[in-house]
Design goal:
It holds the Pfam family Oxidored_q3. With about 90 residues, the chain is mainly α. The chain has a single domain, classed as NADH-ubiquinone/plastoquinone oxidoreductase chain 6, subunit NuoJ (Four Helix Bundle (Hemerythrin (Met), subunit A)). Helix 1 runs antiparallel to helix 2 and helix 2 packs antiparallel against helix 3.
Length: about 90
């Protein structure tokens, strides 16, 4: 059983590191926000592995649910609308 837990931990460690690099290296803000969601979900998996299910649920509700939705609305509200600029000229 310990071998399977070690393999799962290594797999999610790779997912966490890859998505964290994706947050930093992505040129598009939307893709960066999606990668942040993947990184935060993989951190919640670590809490489940530590048998802290309540903290994992709060990680998903607060960070993935709240912060990621806030970032999504900020991206949508501050994005420049190029189509209306072309029509106006």
């Amino acid at each position: 059983m310990a071998l399977l837990e070690s393999i799962a931990f290594a797999l999610f460690a790779i997912v966490t590191l890859g998505s964290s690099l994706g947050v930093v290296l992505a040129r598009d803000v939307w893709h960066s926000a999606l990668m942040l969601g993947v990184a935060l979900l993989s951190v919640a998996v670590y809490y489940v592995m530590l048998r802290a299910e309540f903290i994992a649920a709060m990680q998903i509700l607060v960070y993935v649910g709240g912060v990621l939705i806030l970032i999504t609305f900020a991206i949508m509200l501050t994005e420049k609308d190029t189509q209306s600029d072309e029509v106006a000229t």
